[in-house]
Amino acid sequence: MALMLLLAGRALSEGAGEMLEKLQRKFDSMQDASVSFTKHVVFGVTKSEQDFTGTLFVKKGNKYRIESEDQTIVTDGISVWTFSRANNQVFIDHYKEDPKSFSPDKILVNIPGRYGATLLGKETIDRLETSVLKLVPREEKSNIRWMKLWVDRDEWLMKRIQVLDIGDNLTIYEIGSVKLNSGIPDSEFVFKAPADVEVIDVR
Question: Could you tell me the pTM of the whole model?
């Protein structure tokens, strides 16, 4: 019995490794992508919940643009613009790459490379069969505890993502439409503030 469990666990691990390789190959073939998503957050301390929808535009070279109802975040890989509609302000800072953190572009169209993966099984989402992967960071000082991915094995795209961070905040992304390699221009990754917006530049 122990041998059967050991072999089953080994087979699941091998399957997860193969899936990560295929996902990585899919991501490597992307020059750019646009993704619509719904984000649901359950905060660990207060247990309060928050929902919003958004669109992510991403391009190789650390370029991404996240559009949501109340906020727009844009980076060209050099500067980051964070525009708050409620405050009518745009905050500009230097782009900083932090391998221990996660950002929507990494989650929605990429896989952090410093994770061990386990294949949990299969689950149907909107009548589409997906495989469920659980990723656990190899580094002890990572900002997340674990991540789960629901992967369409026909298109090798993610349909759902769950992330539990070190503050016990659970974030769930439901992935809508995905367009790959549509030729998104670089101008989409530079934010031009309207004339009536207050600009706070700390670069």
Answer: 0.81
- In order of 21, 90, 169, 202, the CA distances from 195 in angstroms are 47, 11, 37, 19
Confidence of residue 105 (pLDDT cuts 50, 70, 90): low
Q: Per-residue pLDDT tens for 59-76?
A: 988 899 999 988 999 999
User: What domains does the chain contain, in order, with CATH numbers?
Assistant: 2-201 (2.50.20.10)
Paired strand residues for 119? 133
Q: What pLDDT, in 10s, does the model give residues 21-36?
A: 888 888 888 899 999 9
